[in-house]
Amino acid sequence: MLTDQQRQDLDTLGYVVLAHFLSAEALREVTGRVEELYALEGENAGFEFRKEPGARRLANLVDKGGIFEKLVAMPPVLELVGHVLGGDFKLSSFNARSTDPFCKEAQPLHCDTGALLDERGYSVCNTIWLLDDFTAQNGATRVIPGSQTWKQLPQDALADPAAKHPQEVLLLGPAGSVVVMNTHAWHGGTANLTSTHRRALHIFYCRNDKPQQQYQKKLLRPETQAHLTPPLRQLLALDDPLNDQLSSVGFGASGFLK
Ligand SMILES: O=C(O)CCC(=O)C(=O)O
User: Fold this and answer.
1) Interval between CA 95 and ligand 1 midpoint (Å)
2) H or E segment at 129?
3) Total Cβ atoms within 10 A of residue 127
4) 30 and 129 in contact (C-beta within 8 Å)?
């Protein structure tokens, strides 16, 4: 059950931090699989979505391990996402992002998929799963609290969206925590001043009337699709004709944002 404080934080700040959400064992399993995938995929890692200078990326994670199928459908997280998006949402994409050691560049502030609050309300909500402690030195995500209501994109409002912003707050917390964030709020990764990677998962949800950032039906192998439970098929919009129409056109037949 959502607490009043969580509701209020999502409504006013735009985010909630669930500290130590994953057990130590689950965190080890997830981190182990993520490192295995970085090693296996090598130069190709992230190709289903995009590559990014200064960071390692993985994409299409529902297809890459049973542990990830569990993470997309965690009831306490879905309840918080549902508070932002209403009852009517689906998985948009599932990625990993790991800021490189000594990566000097902060990401520009952005809203996910460039989406603005519309007449139906909010349409995008991301969840950031901390696989390492997020500290003030290692590239923690920054967010401008309250900016989810501004109906303006940072690239249109700021001379330099990559510059430090006077209202920015760093999302800090121990490994195993999850941040649920209304990603109409301006946010982005920051520079990593340390000698180790800063690793995270991004499980991203969107309202059902929007295209998926990664078209699950196209990206998931048939053998993965065959064993998914009906609730998971629904969350991934595998049997939703509206999603087929939106996602194959919205982000291209290959299923990822160009
Ligand atoms: O990994 C992070 O700290 C945030 C990344 C992000 O916002 C993005 O890649 O769109």
Assistant:
1) 10
2) strand 124-130
3) 27
4) yes
User: Which of 34, 97, 190 has most ligand 1 atoms within 8 Å of its beta carbon, as the pocket-test mutant?
Assistant: 97
* Cα 103 versus chain centre, distance: 20
Cα separation, 109 vs 6, in Å, equals 24
166 vs 188: CA distance, rounded Å:
14
Question: Which is it for strands 187-188 and 198-207: parallel, antiparallel or unpaired?
Answer: unpaired
Which atom belonging to ligand 1 lies closest to the Cα atom of 99? 1
In order of their start, the domains of the chain are 13-250 (2.60.120.620)
Is the entire prediction scored with pTM above 0.85? yes
Task: State the pLDDT at residue 254.
Answer: 42
- Average pLDDT over every residue of 229-255: 84
67-115: pLDDT as tens digits: 999 999 999 999 999 999 998 999 999 999 999 999 999 999 999 999 9
> Which atom of ligand 1 has the smallest separation from the CA of 171?
3
**Which of 126, 141, 190, 213 gets mutated to test ligand 1 (max ligand atoms within 8 A of its CB)?**
141
Index of the ligand 1 atom closest to the CA of residue 126? 7
What phi and psi values does residue 232 have, to the nearest 5 degrees? -70, -40
Q: Is 176 in the pocket of ligand 1 (CB under 6 A)?
A: no
